[in-house]
Please model this.
Amino acid sequence: MGLYVFMRHGKAVPASVAGSDEERWLTEEGRKDVALVAKLIPFMPKVVYTSPLRRARETAEIIAQVRGGEVRVVEQLSPGMASCEAIEELGAEPETVFVGHAPSIELIVSCLIGGGAIKIKAGGFALVEAEELSRGQGELVELVTPRIARVLTGES
Model:
């Protein structure tokens, strides 16, 4: 069995400020939230897969700075492309982090654990344990939110 983290990017500026949805960047609060939440990832990731959109890439870079891991940008985590099947295609090893967008990252987790309507807060993550990343083969271990991270780390 292996552990996998499925993280939603941190809070980002609106598209009207960034000029397009693809170029939205993390807010200062979003950056702080991601750094705090990354401290609670229960392993040192080997790889941090991320959507190519700017806010997700920035989230992945913060995770890599805090916990380590090689950042790999993949189309499979792009909005509209992300799915259980797309995640399976990556052939990810345990102790991997995936950074994506709502609702697709939530739908992936729901698919992997065999159903439900998982909700992941911006900058939060779902920890999934699985023998292999395929439909219905995982178990939701926990959901971590920025608020929980602030309480557990004693930071505000």
Notes: The CA atoms of residues 25 and 55 lie 5 Å apart. The chain has one domain: 2-153. Strands lie at 2-8, 47-50, 70-73, 96-100, 125-130, 138-144.
